[in-house]
Write a structure and sequence with these properties.
six-stranded parallel β-sheet; 20 strands; about 500 residues; Rossmann fold; alpha/beta
Length: about 500
């Protein structure tokens, strides 16, 4: 099988969250299975600076309406030796940030990723053997299935070699759809028939993700529960009807994690390695983390950790409303993240008001993220919705007990010890409100403080969970094979 994996992010070269982690791990797991896979991403400034050596392989010109844009495709080096390419359009991608500054997208976001996708298809056509499947991810690549559909029906010339290519679109977060004014439709180069309510049109706008959902051969999401949730109005973000219509082509495949990167037994970012048979290293990591973040050592206090994008989805306002109640408990809190200015400012105020109890770092810091996972006792993830979530899976591996809202991938990966006393790996709460969250937190802190034997048993169960990519890669490989072997009905 020949798979081209198209994405806007790749950890550690260019990432803002879980999408980059998946782009790093899934192709590597597929390659280990013997599948011929290549990745393609934008050639951001951060990629250019970190991925040397790079070799230019291909140059093309892509059209954006009447404009003609030169694009190069470079082969870059990555630690996992997966064949990786980057689309070089300096005017769009040679920038300090991936998507925008201080939570505001770049004004030319639509044309940036239209150009990227057109260059991906031109490159796929140039290859000696075109891919059999292009695996697309989120709105940044969701026009690829639309353009290939137009190739199949003869609406686009010049890409005929791609007529037999099959497409999969993975939705990592339905809330981000790539919705832009109707004049950007002219930049895509599709016939006018594609701008209607059955295709790309969405309340008078152009919706990239909607187009991908309509025209992909298969749609996947990153957990089974999220695949069900997005077919309901509460989580469907205006596309629940379309997703119900395409339910026969919609599957939830739970993300995995790369234990080669995220495991305390060999993590190079933490001060002392440990495993479930010897947890002394975790206590050392906790002491070092408190020192690093400028918090005092408080005997008997549970350390709460949060690593998050600071946006509405993540439920940080629930913690804000509960903060005084939280601080009446024997706990300290460390938060790492970046996002919308209002949430960044909110979190900074927590630390300013309670400098002995709370430390906040507004940054994207992979090393610190690892140390928070290793040094915390409890991980907080009160997301309103969570397609899969990776941090709660990382926390399980590090023996950091997660408290999560019972939704999406959080529901699929955490077992509530209050419901399953001998199988529990964390605490769930529902509905997504302050009272329910505080109930779960009180229960967790009480067990941590006074039921140490039960707590240690839960920690060891959590660390024994296996969410490796081998399972998910096998499910994707089966999907690819089904499409290649002739299941083309859309």
């Amino acid at each position: 099988m020949r798979i081209l994996y198209a994405s806007a992010e790749l950890t550690p070269l260019a990432a803002t969250g879980g999408l980059g982690d998946v782009t790093a791990a899934l192709p590597a797991a597929l390659q280990e299975m013997g599948i011929e896979v290549a990745r393609i991403i934008p050639f951001y400034r951060s990629v250019r600076e970190a991925a040397a050596p790079a070799v230019e392989k291909f140059v093309c010109t892509v059209s954006l309406g009447r404009r003609r844009i030169s694009a190069g495709v470079w082969q870059i080096s990555t630690p996992d030796d997966v064949c990786t390419f980057a689309v070089d359009i300096p005017e769009y991608f040679d920038r300090r940030e991936l998507y925008g500054t201080r939570g505001v997208d770049y004004k030319d976001a639509a044309e940036r990723f239209i150009a990227f996708q057109k260059a991906v298809l031109a490159f796929a056509t140039w290859l000696p053997k075109p891919p059999q499947v292009i695996h697309c991810n989120d709105w940044h690549t969701a026009l690829i299935p639309v353009l290939i559909h137009a190739v199949r029906n003869g609406s686009i010339a010049g890409l005929r070699r791609l007529a037999e290519v099959r497409t999969i679109l993975t939705i990592h977060n339905l809330a981000y759809q790539g919705v832009y004014p109707p004049d950007c439709f002219d930049l895509v180069g599709l016939p006018a028939s594609y701008f209607n309510w059955k295709a790309l049109e969405f309340y008078g706008m152009v919706n990239f993700l909607k187009g991908g959902i309509v025209f992909s051969d298969v749609i996947t999401t990153v957990s089974p529960t999220y695949a069900r949730e997005i077919q309901q109005p509460e989580f469907g973000c205006g596309l629940d009807g379309l997703l119900r219509e395409r339910a026969g082509r919609l599957r939830g495949i739970l993300n995995g994690v790369d234990y080669g990167v995220w495991h305390p037994s060999h993590d190079q970012h933490i001060p002392r390695n440990y495993d479930s048979s010897d947890l002394r290293g975790k206590a050392i990591c906790k002491r070092a983390l408190l020192k690093e973040m400028g918090l005092p050592q408080r005997k008997g206090h549970a350390l709460l950790g949060i690593i998050s994008r600071l946006v509405e989805q993540k439920g940080l306002d629930i913690i804000d409303k509960a903060l005084e109640s939280i601080l009446r408990l024997p706990v300290q809190l460390i938060l790492l993240g970046t996002g919308e200015p209002r949430f960044e400012d909110m979190c900074r105020k927590w630390a300013l008001r309670h400098p002995q109890r709370i430390a906040v770092r507004i940054a994207f810091d992979q090393g610190l993220a690892h140390r928070i996972q290793a040094g915390s006792d409890i991980y907080l993830m009160p997301s309103r919705y969570e397609p899969c979530g990776l941090n709660q899976i990382y926390s399980l591996a590090y023996g950091t007990i997660p408290i999560v809202h019972d939704t999406g991938g959080l529901a699929d990966t955490v077992v509530d010890i209050r419901v399953h006393p001998t199988a529990g790996t964390g605490f769930k709460f529902a509905p997504c409100c302050t009272d329910a969250f505080l109930d779960a937190l009180h229960a967790a802190v009480a067990m941590y403080a006074s039921q140490r034997r039960l707590w240690r048993a839960m920690v060891r169960r959590a660390m024994a969970q296996d969410f490796s990519w081998k399972r998910a890669a096998g499910e994707y490989a089966a999907l690819y094979r089904t499409l290649i072997d002739g299941d083309h009905n859309t």
